Predict the structure.
Amino acid sequence: MAWIYLLIAGVCEVIWAVAMKESNGFSKLWPTVVTAVGMAISIWFLALAMRTLPLGTAYTIWTGIGAIGSFVIGILWMHEPATAMRLLAAALIISGLVLMKVATPH
């Protein structure tokens, strides 16, 4: 269950990060509300995952899901550049996440 909790936490991190961008510096009400609620849910599920997963693993994968998810949303929805260097950096992050998962005995 810890890995499912961690996945939910990571997805919620992407949601709050996108909502924060859309809030325009917290000047728009609903994106600001989604940001706050998304943060709370994300941290709650991260805490649940940390009951059994090591801190380093849980936190690294949580931030990695958030980073890669936000990166993909940025490219697909916000038309941010998908340069070779940015794609390589994302691939390195993903490879690090896979290695962290493989190296964790849970």
About this structure: Residues 16 and 46 are 14 Å apart (CA to CA). DSSP finds four helices and no strands in the chain.
